[in-house]
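In response to the reviewer comment on reproducibility (Comment 2.3), we provide here a single inverse folding case reported in full, input and output, so that an independent group could reproduce the run without further information from us. The structure tokens appear first.
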């Protein structure tokens, strides 16, 4: 009965060890986690489905031209431009340095995470939406869109601006929450350091002023006669 009781634990341990070994082998062979490989395969599958749908719709030529223009325009024009803009914004924005204290000559650091990520992400999503729907947002395809749907492209600009505003507002709220959490953590660290310093100082004896040194006696001043008073006998 004792051996049967330990059999399931041994089986679970063996399966877990095998699973860890398999995941480790895949990670060493692929260079990342298996979930990353599955996500990459799913992305390739979705891209293949999109290409097949474009070919079936007879829009492969226009899609190829758009793809080539997008690659050339992005890699040769847009990428250097927004890389330079990102570098400029990083130099202008303050950097968060949690837990660090400024010296007497340095400005006070921002007790929070780096602000650049909370500007970069909404800008990136806003530009991505603009690149995907710029004919509708800028009204370049208004005649064709009106013929196909009977609607106008005017709401797309305001919708894009509204989405951009929501992205920046959400990023600002998240940054404020993280800044508050980081500031609270800094205050706790400072309070703990102050308490530790006070406890260390309290364990030591209180510093008292050193007594004045007694006047040095002469080596020959050993016997001091007792001063007689009138009440004592032999005072006459």
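Designed residues, in position order:
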């Amino acid at each position: 009965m004792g051996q049967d009781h330990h059999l399931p634990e041994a089986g679970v341990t063996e399966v877990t060890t095998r699973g860890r070994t398999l995941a480790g082998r895949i990670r060493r062979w692929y260079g990342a986690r298996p979930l990353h490989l599955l996500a990459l395969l799913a992305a390739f599958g979705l891209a293949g489905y999109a290409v097949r749908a474009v070919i079936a719709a007879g829009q492969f030529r226009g899609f190829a031209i758009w793809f080539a223009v997008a690659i050339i325009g992005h890699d040769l024009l847009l990428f250097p431009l927004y890389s330079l803009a990102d570098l400029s914004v990083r130099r202008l924005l303050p950097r968060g340095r949690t837990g660090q204290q400024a010296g007497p000559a340095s400005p006070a650091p921002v007790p929070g995470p780096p602000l650049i990520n909370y500007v970069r992400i909404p800008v990136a999503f806003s530009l991505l939406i603009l690149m995907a729907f710029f004919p509708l947002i800028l009204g370049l395809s208004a005649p064709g869109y009106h013929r196909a749907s009977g609607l106008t492209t005017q709401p797309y600009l305001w919708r894009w601006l509204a989405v951009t505003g929501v992205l920046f507002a959400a990023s600002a709220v998240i940054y404020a929450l993280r800044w508050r959490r980081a500031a609270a953590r800094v205050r706790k660290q400072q309070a703990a350091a102050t308490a530790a310093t006070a406890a260390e100082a309290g364990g030591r004896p209180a510093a008292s002023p050193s007594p004045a040194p007694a006047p040095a006696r002469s080596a020959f001043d050993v016997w001091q006669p007792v001063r007689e008073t009138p009440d004592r006998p032999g005072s006459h």
